[in-house]
Amino acid sequence: MKEQNISKLLQNQLTIPEKLLTSYNRLGLDEIDVMILLQIHRYLQKGHKFPTLFELTQHLTISEEVCADKLRLLLDKNVIEIIHYQTKQGKISEAYSLEPLWKRLLLNDEEKENEEGKLFVLFEKEFGRPLSPFEIETINIWIDEEEINPQLIIAALREAVLMGKLNFKYIDSILREWKKKGVQSVEQAKQASEPFRKGQIVKTYTPEKRDTSVYFNWLEDGGL
């Protein structure tokens, strides 16, 4: 009986893109945002195009007021939109659309690929040579398995250059240290590295002149 109930339970599924669960933070969304989006998606799949605040919060742990604020932010961020359509009776009604969300997830993929491409080019430029297969694999592990933001990898590369320790082992140690400290942004990386740099007696290091513009001034505006 239990197995039959479980089987029946699993048949009642809601299909969502995996990318939403793995990339929502890159869109500036939090877990409450995602749950609201999933509830809207669930209602849309059932043909209910414009669920009320009461209907949405029946399945959430937030109040209608909080839900309304979140919906306004999602609209402002162009994650959802409210569209108008004509019913069979000829009336004009409103409906939620998640089309902006799906488009942004696709765009996020394209931006990520672009970021990763720039990352490899930047490493080769700093090392002054093509990367070895092992080094390429190391960067892929950082990105795919450890899911490190490419911007943080660039920040670690920049840190290695500043410290005169341009090697993959040192860059990896920086990334591991940041992970232990919960560093998730370039700004946090900058703050985490400042005490370390101040406590070090940096040996004289004269690297060859580099075009620092390729870093997009990450120390100031923190991004690609």
Describe the structure.
With 224 residues, this protein is mostly helical. The protein folds into two domains: 2-97, Arc Repressor Mutant, subunit A, CATH 1.10.10; 110-221, DnaD domain-like (Arc Repressor Mutant, subunit A), CATH 1.10.10.630. 60% of the residues lie in helices and 5% in strands. The protein is built from eleven helices and two strands. The protein has a two-stranded antiparallel ribbon with strand order 1-2. The longest helix is centred in the middle third of the chain and has 29 residues, at 99-127. The relative contact order is 0.08.
Low-confidence stretches: 201-207, 214-224
The rounded Rg comes to: 23 Å
Largest sheet: 2 strands, antiparallel
Q: What characteristic shape results from the CA principal axes?
A: elongated
CATH class (first level) name of the largest domain: Mainly Alpha
Number of domains: 2
Q: What is the CATH homology-level superfamily of the largest domain?
A: DnaD domain-like
Give the termini distance in whole angstroms: 55 Å
In short:
The chain is 60% helix and 5% strand. The chain is mainly alpha-helical and 224 residues long. The protein has a two-stranded antiparallel ribbon with strand order 1-2.
